[in-house]
């Protein structure tokens, strides 16, 4: 298939473009602004990754999140004529729970960013219900590894601390908060699996997560992989801190997806190898 990828030069986008090529598809990078009308007559599918995704920033200035994440999705949907459409969403659309989250779990976005993604999900679902397109939403949990540069993410920040490229990291609470991590290569594989399963007139939602781990687990893994402890400043927990956000990805696995690179130590090691200063990683095994 000929597949338009928005956000193709981003962290996840680069991995998705590579995976599409491996599976014989032709990725097309979009250079259009999301605020502009799209022409999509020469593509078979769209993978929509482009978005503004800074959670804390979204509380300070929420309007651009709706303008880009919802308005951009709307502009793409208006241009569709029988194509497949895949939306990258987020696991933070769910109401936090100690239980593992399925695709049927209650949505209760906890930030303007997550709320904008939930609104985009609704647009996509209604467009699919019309029967004019095929639509799939992938709710990504904590994507990591593969040379990520966003040090607001916990694994990337911890590895950067070990590498000495950032001075340290703040941990709020006792470090026991649990998140679900998934390697960016496995995320890319999920998009290709979902693309090939999608067909016009159908709609589906899939969780994309692989390995549940606490912040302390991440710090321990960084020490094990690099031989360097992370300089942590412990701070009181934020009010309303989400203690657990774990994904049930069995629906996606039923399509044949299997996370192959998402063990915590492998994610950390891959991030370290991509960002460590000379002479390289810590003690060998």
Automatic annotation (TrEMBL):
It comes from the Bacteria. It holds the Pfam family Epimerase. Gene3D superfamilies: NAD(P)-binding Rossmann-like Domain (3.40.50.720), UDP-galactose 4-epimerase, domain 1 (3.90.25.10). Residues 3-209 form the NAD-dependent epimerase/dehydratase domain. Belongs to the NAD(P)-dependent epimerase/dehydratase family. PANTHER family: DTDP-D-GLUCOSE 4,6-DEHYDRATASE-RELATED (PTHR43000). This is NAD-dependent epimerase/dehydratase family protein. It comes from Lentzea sokolovensis.
């Amino acid at each position: 298939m000929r597949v338009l990828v928005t956000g193709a030069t981003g962290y996840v986008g680069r991995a998705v473009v590579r995976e599409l090529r491996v599976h014989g598809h032709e990725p097309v990078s979009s250079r259009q602004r999301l605020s502009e009308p799209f022409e999509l007559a020469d593509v078979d599918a769209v993978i929509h990754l482009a978005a503004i995704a800074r959670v804390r920033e979204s509380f300070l200035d929420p309007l651009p999140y709706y303008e880009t994440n919802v308005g951009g999705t709307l502009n793409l949907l208006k241009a569709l004529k029988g194509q497949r459409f895949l939306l990258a969403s987020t696991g933070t659309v769910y109401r936090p729970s100690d239980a593992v989250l399925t695709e049927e779990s209650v949505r209760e976005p906890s930030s303007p960013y997550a709320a904008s993604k939930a609104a985009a999900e609704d647009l996509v679902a209604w467009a699919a219900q019309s029967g004019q397109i095929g639509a799939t939403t992938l709710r990504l949990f904590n994507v990591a590894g593969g040379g990520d540069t966003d040090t607001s993410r916990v694994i990337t920040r911890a590895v950067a601390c070990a590498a000495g490229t950032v001075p340290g990291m703040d941990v709020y609470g006792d470090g026991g908060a649990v998140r679900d991590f998934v390697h960016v290569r496995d995320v890319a594989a999920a998009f290709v699996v979902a693309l090939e399963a999608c067909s016009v007139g159908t709609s589906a939602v899939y969780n994309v997560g692989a390995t549940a781990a606490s912040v302390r687990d991440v710090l321990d893994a960084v020490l094990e992989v690099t031989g360097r402890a992370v300089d942590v400043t412990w701070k009181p927990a934020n009010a309303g801190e989400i203690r657990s956000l774990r994904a049930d990805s069995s629906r996606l696995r039923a399509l044949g997806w299997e996370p192959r690179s998402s063990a915590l130590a492998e994610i950390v090691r891959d991030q370290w190898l991509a960002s460590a200063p000379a002479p390289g990683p810590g003690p060998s095994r």
